[in-house]
Design goal:
With 448 residues, the chain is of the alpha/beta class. The chain is built from 23 helices and 8 strands.
Length: 448
Amino acid sequence: MKTFTAVAVPHEDILQGRLTMDVFAADLWEVYKKRSPAEYQDADIFFKKTYLTKGLQNLLEMMKKRLQGKGGDPIIQLQTPFGGGKTHALIALYHKAKEMKANIIVFSGDKYPVGENELTLWEEMEKQLTGKVEKLKGKNPPGGEKLMQLFEEYQPLLILLDEVHQYVVKASGLKAGEVSLATQTIVFLQELTGAIKSLDKTLLVASLPSSDPYKDVKSEELLNSLQSVLGRMKRIYEPVHEDEIYPVVRRRLFSSINEKDAKNIIEEFLNYAEKEKIFSEGIEKADYRDRFLKSYPFQPEVIDILYKRWGSFPDFQRTRGVLRLLSLLIYSLKESKIPFIRLCDFDLRNDGIRRELIQYIGNEFDSVIAQDITSSDSGAKKVDKSLGSSYLPYSFGTKVATTIFMYSFSGGREKGCSMNEIKMSSAEMDVPSSIIVEAVSKLSISAS
Protein backbone atom coordinates (compact mmCIF):
# COMPACT_ATOMS: atom_id res chain seq x y z
CA MET A 1 0.00 0.00 0.00
CA LYS A 2 1.32 3.44 -0.92
CA THR A 3 2.38 5.96 1.70
CA PHE A 4 0.15 9.00 2.14
CA THR A 5 2.89 11.36 0.85
CA ALA A 6 3.07 9.35 -2.40
CA VAL A 7 -0.69 9.81 -2.89
CA ALA A 8 -1.16 13.31 -1.45
CA VAL A 9 1.87 15.49 -2.20
CA PRO A 10 2.34 18.25 0.41
CA HIS A 11 3.17 21.80 -0.67
CA GLU A 12 6.86 22.66 -0.50
CA ASP A 13 6.46 24.98 2.49
CA ILE A 14 5.01 22.06 4.47
CA LEU A 15 7.77 19.64 3.42
CA GLN A 16 10.44 22.19 4.27
CA GLY A 17 8.99 22.88 7.70
CA ARG A 18 8.26 26.57 7.07
CA LEU A 19 5.58 26.38 9.69
CA THR A 20 5.77 29.69 11.52
CA MET A 21 2.38 31.11 12.44
CA ASP A 22 2.71 34.00 9.97
CA VAL A 23 2.49 31.52 7.09
CA PHE A 24 -1.09 30.84 8.18
CA ALA A 25 -1.88 34.32 9.53
CA ALA A 26 -3.78 36.40 7.00
CA ASP A 27 -2.94 40.11 7.32
CA LEU A 28 -4.59 42.54 4.93
CA TRP A 29 -2.38 45.50 5.90
CA GLU A 30 0.81 43.50 5.24
CA VAL A 31 -0.53 42.51 1.81
CA TYR A 32 -1.30 46.16 1.04
CA LYS A 33 2.20 47.17 2.18
CA LYS A 34 3.70 44.32 0.08
CA ARG A 35 5.35 42.73 3.14
CA SER A 36 3.35 39.53 3.57
CA PRO A 37 4.46 35.94 2.78
CA ALA A 38 4.02 34.83 -0.84
CA GLU A 39 1.02 32.72 0.21
CA TYR A 40 -0.90 35.98 0.63
CA GLN A 41 1.07 38.52 -1.44
CA ASP A 42 1.09 36.65 -4.76
CA ALA A 43 -2.45 36.40 -6.14
CA ASP A 44 -1.71 33.22 -8.13
CA ILE A 45 -0.26 31.41 -5.11
CA PHE A 46 -3.03 32.75 -2.86
CA PHE A 47 -5.84 31.39 -5.03
CA LYS A 48 -3.98 28.17 -5.78
CA LYS A 49 -3.94 27.44 -2.05
CA THR A 50 -7.41 28.84 -1.33
CA TYR A 51 -10.51 26.70 -1.68
CA LEU A 52 -13.33 28.97 -2.83
CA THR A 53 -16.12 28.19 -0.39
CA LYS A 54 -19.70 29.09 -1.28
CA GLY A 55 -19.51 32.08 1.04
CA LEU A 56 -16.31 33.36 -0.58
CA GLN A 57 -17.64 32.79 -4.10
CA ASN A 58 -20.78 34.76 -3.27
CA LEU A 59 -18.71 37.59 -1.81
CA LEU A 60 -16.50 37.81 -4.91
CA GLU A 61 -19.53 37.75 -7.21
CA MET A 62 -21.21 40.54 -5.21
CA MET A 63 -18.07 42.65 -5.45
CA LYS A 64 -17.74 42.11 -9.21
CA LYS A 65 -21.37 43.04 -9.80
CA ARG A 66 -21.10 46.19 -7.70
CA LEU A 67 -17.82 47.44 -9.18
CA GLN A 68 -19.17 46.93 -12.69
CA GLY A 69 -22.16 49.14 -11.86
CA LYS A 70 -24.66 46.29 -12.14
CA GLY A 71 -26.34 46.85 -8.79
CA GLY A 72 -25.80 44.91 -5.60
CA ASP A 73 -25.25 45.98 -2.02
CA PRO A 74 -23.06 49.09 -1.60
CA ILE A 75 -22.04 48.14 1.97
CA ILE A 76 -21.19 44.70 3.33
CA GLN A 77 -20.40 44.05 6.97
CA LEU A 78 -18.41 40.86 7.51
CA GLN A 79 -19.14 39.51 10.94
CA THR A 80 -17.46 36.31 12.07
CA PRO A 81 -16.22 34.80 15.35
CA PHE A 82 -12.54 34.93 16.38
CA GLY A 83 -10.43 33.18 13.74
CA GLY A 84 -13.43 32.91 11.42
CA GLY A 85 -11.61 33.79 8.19
CA LYS A 86 -12.82 37.35 7.55
CA THR A 87 -9.33 38.74 6.87
CA HIS A 88 -8.70 35.92 4.39
CA ALA A 89 -11.91 36.96 2.63
CA LEU A 90 -10.81 40.61 2.52
CA ILE A 91 -7.50 39.58 0.93
CA ALA A 92 -9.39 37.59 -1.71
CA LEU A 93 -11.48 40.69 -2.49
CA TYR A 94 -8.30 42.78 -2.67
CA HIS A 95 -6.65 40.51 -5.24
CA LYS A 96 -9.78 40.18 -7.39
CA ALA A 97 -10.33 43.94 -7.37
CA LYS A 98 -6.71 44.37 -8.51
CA GLU A 99 -7.44 42.03 -11.42
CA MET A 100 -10.42 44.24 -12.31
CA LYS A 101 -8.13 47.34 -12.30
CA ALA A 102 -10.30 48.92 -9.60
CA ASN A 103 -8.98 51.47 -7.13
CA ILE A 104 -8.64 50.11 -3.60
CA ILE A 105 -8.51 51.71 -0.16
CA VAL A 106 -7.19 49.47 2.62
CA PHE A 107 -7.43 50.17 6.33
CA SER A 108 -6.48 47.80 9.16
CA GLY A 109 -7.44 49.16 12.54
CA ASP A 110 -5.17 46.83 14.46
CA LYS A 111 -2.11 48.17 12.60
CA TYR A 112 -3.06 51.81 12.08
CA PRO A 113 -1.65 54.23 14.69
CA VAL A 114 -3.66 56.72 16.74
CA GLY A 115 -2.03 59.99 17.81
CA GLU A 116 -2.05 63.77 17.57
CA ASN A 117 0.28 63.72 14.57
CA GLU A 118 -1.23 60.67 12.87
CA LEU A 119 -3.63 60.85 9.94
CA THR A 120 -7.29 60.18 10.66
CA LEU A 121 -9.17 57.45 8.83
CA TRP A 122 -10.59 59.93 6.29
CA GLU A 123 -7.21 61.59 5.72
CA GLU A 124 -5.61 58.18 5.14
CA MET A 125 -8.32 57.32 2.61
CA GLU A 126 -7.66 60.49 0.60
CA LYS A 127 -3.91 59.93 0.75
CA GLN A 128 -4.25 56.39 -0.62
CA LEU A 129 -6.40 57.61 -3.52
CA THR A 130 -4.60 60.82 -4.47
CA GLY A 131 -1.18 60.68 -2.80
CA LYS A 132 -1.93 63.79 -0.73
CA VAL A 133 -4.28 65.12 1.96
CA GLU A 134 -6.19 68.26 0.96
CA LYS A 135 -9.96 67.89 0.60
CA LEU A 136 -10.44 65.72 3.70
CA LYS A 137 -7.82 67.34 5.92
CA GLY A 138 -8.61 68.00 9.60
CA LYS A 139 -9.78 66.31 12.78
CA ASN A 140 -13.44 66.97 11.97
CA PRO A 141 -14.93 64.39 9.60
CA PRO A 142 -15.93 65.59 6.12
CA GLY A 143 -19.53 65.64 4.96
CA GLY A 144 -21.06 63.20 2.51
CA GLU A 145 -20.96 65.67 -0.40
CA LYS A 146 -17.16 65.98 -0.21
CA LEU A 147 -16.79 62.22 -0.04
CA MET A 148 -19.04 61.65 -3.05
CA GLN A 149 -17.08 64.17 -5.14
CA LEU A 150 -13.78 62.50 -4.25
CA PHE A 151 -14.86 58.90 -4.68
CA GLU A 152 -16.82 59.42 -7.89
CA GLU A 153 -13.63 60.40 -9.67
CA TYR A 154 -11.92 57.15 -8.61
CA GLN A 155 -14.64 54.61 -9.42
CA PRO A 156 -14.67 51.63 -9.62
CA LEU A 157 -13.58 51.75 -5.99
CA LEU A 158 -13.31 49.07 -3.31
CA ILE A 159 -12.94 50.19 0.32
CA LEU A 160 -11.75 47.49 2.74
CA LEU A 161 -11.93 48.29 6.46
CA ASP A 162 -10.52 45.57 8.69
CA GLU A 163 -10.52 45.58 12.52
CA VAL A 164 -12.51 48.84 12.67
CA HIS A 165 -13.61 48.13 16.23
CA GLN A 166 -10.02 47.80 17.44
CA TYR A 167 -9.22 51.19 15.89
CA VAL A 168 -12.11 53.07 17.53
CA VAL A 169 -11.27 51.50 20.91
CA LYS A 170 -7.77 52.98 20.56
CA ALA A 171 -9.21 56.27 19.27
CA SER A 172 -11.50 56.63 22.29
CA GLY A 173 -8.53 57.87 24.31
CA LEU A 174 -7.68 60.74 21.96
CA LYS A 175 -9.45 64.08 21.92
CA ALA A 176 -10.62 65.47 18.56
CA GLY A 177 -12.30 68.81 19.16
CA GLU A 178 -14.93 68.57 21.87
CA VAL A 179 -15.24 64.78 21.62
CA SER A 180 -12.99 61.75 21.17
CA LEU A 181 -11.53 60.60 17.85
CA ALA A 182 -13.62 57.43 18.27
CA THR A 183 -16.83 59.48 18.18
CA GLN A 184 -15.57 61.48 15.20
CA THR A 185 -14.68 58.24 13.39
CA ILE A 186 -18.16 56.81 13.94
CA VAL A 187 -19.68 60.09 12.66
CA PHE A 188 -17.41 59.80 9.60
CA LEU A 189 -18.50 56.21 8.96
CA GLN A 190 -22.12 57.36 8.99
CA GLU A 191 -21.29 60.04 6.39
CA LEU A 192 -19.29 57.46 4.43
CA THR A 193 -22.09 54.91 4.23
CA GLY A 194 -24.53 57.60 3.09
CA ALA A 195 -22.15 58.76 0.36
CA ILE A 196 -21.40 55.25 -0.89
CA LYS A 197 -25.09 54.47 -1.33
CA SER A 198 -25.22 57.30 -3.88
CA LEU A 199 -22.35 55.89 -5.95
CA ASP A 200 -22.94 53.05 -8.38
CA LYS A 201 -19.44 51.55 -8.65
CA THR A 202 -18.17 51.83 -5.07
CA LEU A 203 -18.27 49.04 -2.50
CA LEU A 204 -17.45 49.25 1.20
CA VAL A 205 -16.60 46.00 3.00
CA ALA A 206 -15.98 46.29 6.74
CA SER A 207 -15.16 43.60 9.27
CA LEU A 208 -16.46 43.57 12.83
CA PRO A 209 -16.23 40.93 15.56
CA SER A 210 -19.48 39.16 16.38
CA SER A 211 -18.99 40.02 20.07
CA ASP A 212 -16.82 42.39 22.09
CA PRO A 213 -13.39 40.74 22.48
CA TYR A 214 -12.33 43.14 25.27
CA LYS A 215 -15.29 42.53 27.62
CA ASP A 216 -15.37 46.21 28.51
CA VAL A 217 -18.46 48.44 28.82
CA LYS A 218 -17.05 51.29 26.72
CA SER A 219 -15.68 48.89 24.13
CA GLU A 220 -19.07 47.18 23.84
CA GLU A 221 -20.80 50.55 23.40
CA LEU A 222 -18.44 51.38 20.55
CA LEU A 223 -19.07 47.99 18.91
CA ASN A 224 -22.83 48.52 19.15
CA SER A 225 -22.44 51.96 17.55
CA LEU A 226 -20.38 50.52 14.70
CA GLN A 227 -22.86 47.71 14.15
CA SER A 228 -25.65 50.27 14.04
CA VAL A 229 -23.85 52.46 11.47
CA LEU A 230 -22.49 49.64 9.31
CA GLY A 231 -25.27 47.17 10.00
CA ARG A 232 -27.97 48.81 7.95
CA MET A 233 -26.90 46.59 5.07
CA LYS A 234 -25.24 43.85 7.06
CA ARG A 235 -24.30 40.46 5.69
CA ILE A 236 -23.21 37.89 8.21
CA TYR A 237 -20.41 36.13 6.37
CA GLU A 238 -19.74 32.50 7.13
CA PRO A 239 -16.49 31.76 5.27
CA VAL A 240 -16.37 28.01 5.91
CA HIS A 241 -19.42 25.78 6.27
CA GLU A 242 -18.88 22.55 8.16
CA ASP A 243 -18.92 20.43 5.01
CA GLU A 244 -16.27 22.67 3.38
CA ILE A 245 -13.50 22.36 5.95
CA TYR A 246 -12.11 19.19 4.29
CA PRO A 247 -11.41 20.78 0.88
CA VAL A 248 -10.18 23.99 2.56
CA VAL A 249 -7.57 21.97 4.48
CA ARG A 250 -6.58 19.82 1.51
CA ARG A 251 -6.13 22.76 -0.87
CA ARG A 252 -3.90 24.64 1.57
CA LEU A 253 -1.70 21.70 2.59
CA PHE A 254 -1.35 19.56 -0.57
CA SER A 255 -0.31 20.42 -4.12
CA SER A 256 -1.87 17.28 -5.66
CA ILE A 257 -3.83 14.19 -4.62
CA ASN A 258 -4.17 11.01 -6.68
CA GLU A 259 -7.87 10.37 -6.12
CA LYS A 260 -7.73 6.86 -7.60
CA ASP A 261 -4.99 5.72 -5.22
CA ALA A 262 -6.75 7.42 -2.32
CA LYS A 263 -9.98 5.59 -3.15
CA ASN A 264 -8.20 2.22 -3.20
CA ILE A 265 -6.60 2.85 0.21
CA ILE A 266 -9.89 4.02 1.70
CA GLU A 267 -11.76 1.02 0.30
CA GLU A 268 -9.27 -1.37 1.87
CA PHE A 269 -9.72 0.32 5.25
CA LEU A 270 -13.52 0.32 4.92
CA ASN A 271 -13.51 -3.42 4.22
CA TYR A 272 -11.36 -3.95 7.32
CA ALA A 273 -13.65 -1.74 9.44
CA GLU A 274 -16.74 -3.58 8.21
CA LYS A 275 -15.19 -6.98 8.86
CA GLU A 276 -14.11 -5.91 12.37
CA LYS A 277 -17.49 -4.22 13.04
CA ILE A 278 -15.86 -1.01 14.26
CA PHE A 279 -18.14 1.58 12.66
CA SER A 280 -19.69 3.64 15.42
CA GLU A 281 -23.43 3.42 15.94
CA GLY A 282 -25.34 5.48 13.41
CA ILE A 283 -22.45 5.71 10.91
CA GLU A 284 -23.05 4.02 7.57
CA LYS A 285 -20.19 2.71 5.46
CA ALA A 286 -21.26 4.73 2.41
CA ASP A 287 -21.45 7.99 4.38
CA TYR A 288 -18.06 7.37 5.98
CA ARG A 289 -16.56 6.61 2.55
CA ASP A 290 -17.83 9.95 1.24
CA ARG A 291 -16.32 11.87 4.18
CA PHE A 292 -13.01 10.00 3.95
CA LEU A 293 -12.71 10.70 0.21
CA LYS A 294 -13.11 14.41 0.97
CA SER A 295 -10.69 14.43 3.92
CA TYR A 296 -7.93 12.07 2.66
CA PRO A 297 -5.04 11.76 3.55
CA PHE A 298 -6.58 12.50 6.95
CA GLN A 299 -9.17 10.26 8.49
CA PRO A 300 -12.29 12.42 8.90
CA GLU A 301 -11.96 12.23 12.69
CA VAL A 302 -8.62 14.07 12.60
CA ILE A 303 -10.11 17.24 11.09
CA ASP A 304 -13.44 16.90 12.92
CA ILE A 305 -11.87 16.64 16.38
CA LEU A 306 -9.51 19.57 15.76
CA TYR A 307 -12.09 21.82 14.14
CA LYS A 308 -15.09 21.06 16.36
CA ARG A 309 -13.65 20.08 19.75
CA TRP A 310 -10.27 21.80 19.98
CA GLY A 311 -11.67 24.61 17.83
CA SER A 312 -14.29 25.33 20.49
CA PHE A 313 -11.61 26.67 22.86
CA PRO A 314 -12.07 30.47 22.90
CA ASP A 315 -8.47 31.21 21.84
CA PHE A 316 -8.28 28.53 19.13
CA GLN A 317 -8.35 30.27 15.76
CA ARG A 318 -10.43 27.63 14.02
CA THR A 319 -9.18 27.30 10.42
CA ARG A 320 -5.74 28.82 11.07
CA GLY A 321 -5.18 26.68 14.19
CA VAL A 322 -6.23 23.51 12.39
CA LEU A 323 -3.92 24.25 9.44
CA ARG A 324 -0.99 25.01 11.73
CA LEU A 325 -1.41 21.76 13.67
CA LEU A 326 -1.93 19.63 10.58
CA SER A 327 1.11 21.12 8.86
CA LEU A 328 3.23 20.21 11.90
CA LEU A 329 1.72 16.72 11.82
CA ILE A 330 2.48 16.21 8.11
CA TYR A 331 6.04 17.41 8.59
CA SER A 332 6.57 14.98 11.48
CA LEU A 333 5.23 12.09 9.38
CA LYS A 334 6.79 12.85 5.98
CA GLU A 335 9.20 9.88 6.19
CA SER A 336 6.61 7.44 7.61
CA LYS A 337 5.09 4.54 5.70
CA ILE A 338 1.48 5.02 6.81
CA PRO A 339 -1.19 5.11 4.06
CA PHE A 340 -3.31 7.77 5.81
CA ILE A 341 -3.18 9.94 8.94
CA ARG A 342 -5.12 9.10 12.11
CA LEU A 343 -5.56 10.74 15.50
CA CYS A 344 -3.13 8.19 16.94
CA ASP A 345 -0.41 9.54 14.63
CA PHE A 346 -0.05 12.80 16.56
CA ASP A 347 3.45 12.37 18.00
CA LEU A 348 3.18 14.01 21.40
CA ARG A 349 6.95 13.72 21.83
CA ASN A 350 7.24 16.31 19.07
CA ASP A 351 7.77 19.60 20.87
CA GLY A 352 5.98 21.70 18.23
CA ILE A 353 2.86 19.53 18.16
CA ARG A 354 2.69 19.15 21.94
CA ARG A 355 3.18 22.87 22.58
CA GLU A 356 0.55 23.77 20.01
CA LEU A 357 -1.97 21.60 21.87
CA ILE A 358 -1.18 22.33 25.52
CA GLN A 359 -1.38 26.10 25.04
CA TYR A 360 -5.17 25.61 25.09
CA ILE A 361 -5.42 23.17 27.99
CA GLY A 362 -2.64 24.36 30.31
CA ASN A 363 1.09 23.80 30.78
CA GLU A 364 0.42 21.35 33.61
CA PHE A 365 -0.50 18.78 30.97
CA ASP A 366 3.11 18.71 29.77
CA SER A 367 4.05 16.49 32.70
CA VAL A 368 0.82 14.50 32.40
CA ILE A 369 1.57 13.68 28.75
CA ALA A 370 5.08 12.59 29.66
CA GLN A 371 3.90 10.43 32.56
CA ASP A 372 1.02 8.80 30.66
CA ILE A 373 2.21 8.63 27.04
CA THR A 374 5.66 9.75 25.96
CA SER A 375 8.36 8.99 28.54
CA SER A 376 10.16 5.64 28.39
CA ASP A 377 8.53 4.50 31.64
CA SER A 378 5.06 5.94 30.92
CA GLY A 379 1.92 3.87 31.24
CA ALA A 380 1.49 3.73 27.46
CA LYS A 381 5.06 2.50 26.85
CA LYS A 382 4.60 -0.22 29.49
CA VAL A 383 1.45 -1.37 27.69
CA ASP A 384 3.35 -1.38 24.36
CA LYS A 385 5.76 -3.94 25.85
CA SER A 386 3.15 -5.93 27.74
CA LEU A 387 1.20 -6.81 24.58
CA GLY A 388 4.04 -9.06 23.42
CA SER A 389 7.00 -8.81 21.06
CA SER A 390 4.93 -9.40 17.90
CA TYR A 391 2.86 -6.29 18.64
CA LEU A 392 5.70 -4.11 19.95
CA PRO A 393 6.46 -2.45 16.55
CA TYR A 394 2.86 -1.17 16.42
CA SER A 395 3.02 0.65 19.78
CA PHE A 396 -0.67 0.04 20.40
CA GLY A 397 -0.49 1.33 23.96
CA THR A 398 0.88 4.67 22.75
CA LYS A 399 -1.55 4.83 19.80
CA VAL A 400 -4.57 4.20 22.00
CA ALA A 401 -3.43 6.65 24.69
CA THR A 402 -2.81 9.34 22.05
CA THR A 403 -6.26 8.81 20.49
CA ILE A 404 -7.93 9.06 23.89
CA PHE A 405 -5.95 12.24 24.65
CA MET A 406 -7.06 13.89 21.38
CA TYR A 407 -10.70 13.04 22.12
CA SER A 408 -10.53 14.17 25.74
CA PHE A 409 -10.39 17.94 25.38
CA SER A 410 -12.88 20.50 24.19
CA GLY A 411 -13.88 24.06 24.87
CA GLY A 412 -17.47 22.81 24.95
CA ARG A 413 -19.27 19.94 26.60
CA GLU A 414 -18.40 17.19 24.15
CA LYS A 415 -15.55 15.04 25.45
CA GLY A 416 -14.54 11.38 25.54
CA CYS A 417 -14.92 8.60 22.98
CA SER A 418 -16.36 5.13 22.51
CA MET A 419 -14.40 1.91 22.04
CA ASN A 420 -15.28 1.86 18.34
CA GLU A 421 -14.03 5.42 17.93
CA ILE A 422 -10.74 4.41 19.54
CA LYS A 423 -10.52 1.41 17.21
CA MET A 424 -11.21 3.54 14.11
CA SER A 425 -8.38 5.92 15.01
CA SER A 426 -5.83 3.38 16.31
CA ALA A 427 -6.29 0.15 14.37
CA GLU A 428 -3.84 -1.40 11.91
CA MET A 429 -5.35 -3.21 8.95
CA ASP A 430 -3.14 -6.28 9.30
CA VAL A 431 -4.01 -6.81 12.98
CA PRO A 432 -7.41 -7.79 14.52
CA SER A 433 -8.99 -4.83 16.32
CA SER A 434 -9.41 -6.90 19.48
CA ILE A 435 -5.85 -5.89 20.39
CA ILE A 436 -7.17 -2.34 20.85
CA VAL A 437 -9.60 -3.58 23.51
CA GLU A 438 -6.73 -5.28 25.31
CA ALA A 439 -4.59 -2.14 25.12
CA VAL A 440 -7.42 0.00 26.56
CA SER A 441 -7.93 -2.50 29.37
CA LYS A 442 -4.22 -2.52 30.26
CA LEU A 443 -4.08 1.29 30.14
CA SER A 444 -7.01 1.44 32.56
CA ILE A 445 -5.25 -0.92 34.98
CA SER A 446 -2.03 1.07 34.61
CA ALA A 447 -3.82 4.33 35.43
CA SER A 448 -5.63 2.99 38.47
